[in-house]
Amino acid sequence: MARQNLNTSGAPGVPGALVWVITGVQIIPAFAESGIIGGTVRAFVGPILAALLWHLAMGIELRHAKPGAGSQSLAALVARELRERLLSRLGLAVRDRTAEQITRDRWTARAVDLAAQLAGMQASDRGHARLARRLSKAVGRAQVGAHPQQRRALLQLLSARLHSAALATLDLPSPWDIREPVRPPKPAPVIAYRELREMQPMDAVLAASRAHPALQPDELCALLGDHGVVVSPTQVDIALRSSASAHPRALLRASAADQTLFAVHARIDEQPSPDAYPGEPDAPDADEPDADADRALLPDARRVDQDHAARHGRTAPLRVLQKQLRIGQPRAQRMRALLDEETHP
Fold it and tell me: What is the pLDDT of residues 143-197, one digit of tens each?
């Protein structure tokens, strides 16, 4: 049972207490049979030493089962605490030091004390020369001239010792004032990088083209790749063409400049047009130019264009105007031209 408690909780528990109870009971007959001196010897060599050996065996078994673990019983905790306090009182708190390092550390602390005392004295004071000689001896024993790390430790300790009076006059903030941590503003390239990463690829291409209108599609593709947006030159070309469709005049001029015109000469005899049915007016064509009808449809086209710009950050293309206004492509081009005239008169 003691072994089970030791493996689970780190202490023998009730069985350990029973061991000491039995030990105490066995001490009584030792004193009754042998007196004070003989009883003390019999009690220590017999039950007390047996109980200590039992606890040592339990500790060895615990460390064997769990390397680095220690007993958590009250006696073990008190023993460890007393050992640490004794080592601290003897100046042996820092472990794994050589004898030379211990000597240097001791004389470094002594030199700091002597220098602090000498700083508060005048040259004419009694004992000034003797204190200076003791300080020189301590500095030599500390070997601060041959060990830069030891010299750095000496200067830091002495600086803190000499300026200890300024500790009481420091202007410190109150711990009861809750302040939000100050966050440095993010630079513009980081913000642009995040915004481009959150955009759709086509929108990122258009944003980059508006920021750098002189770049070619290949250069735009490389620029977006540097910002973490992976697009192909074909996608860049498609995005630029869809953006150009929002400006039909520029698109028509660009397409007309790139096309080769062929002239076809043919003679067609004039034929009389068939008469319309009497009494019925000609049906108007929705795609025929009609300035009044276009002006009447302009508010709806403006609303569609503003909604599309608010959602996607660019003007509505012809396909959106055709779908929302239910008109043909020629009339959508005219509405796009009217909207562009309002934006860029």
Answer: 998 999 999 999 999 999 999 888 888 888 887 877 766 676 655 554 466 677 7
Query: For the residues of 176-240, what is the DSSP string, one character each?
Result: T---PPPPPPPPHHHHHHHHHHHS-HHHHHHHHHHH-TT--HHHHHHHHHHTT----HHHHHHHH
| H helix or E strand, kind and range, residue 265 | none
Query: Is residue 230 in some structural domain?
Result: yes
Q: Pick the residue with more confidence: 106 or 212?
A: 106
CB atoms under 10 Å from CB of 153, counted, come to: 18
Residue 180 main-chain phi, psi, to 5 deg: -70, 140
**Model pLDDT for residues 204-243, shown as the tens digit of each residue:** 888 888 777 777 888 888 877 777 777 787 778 877 777 6
Domain count, the chain: 4
| Residues of the domain holding 140 | 99-163
Evaluate whether 157 touches 144 at the Cβ level (below 8 Å).
no
Q: Cβ distance 47 to 23 under 8 Å?
A: yes
Residues 108 and 84 in one domain: no
Tell me which amino acid residue 204 is.
A
The first and second tokens of residue 259, run together, are: 């096309």
Q: How many CB atoms lie within 10 A of CB 325?
A: 17
Q: How far apart are CA 135 and CA 122, in angstroms?
A: 15
Task: Quote the strand ranges of 11-61, DSSP E.
Answer: none
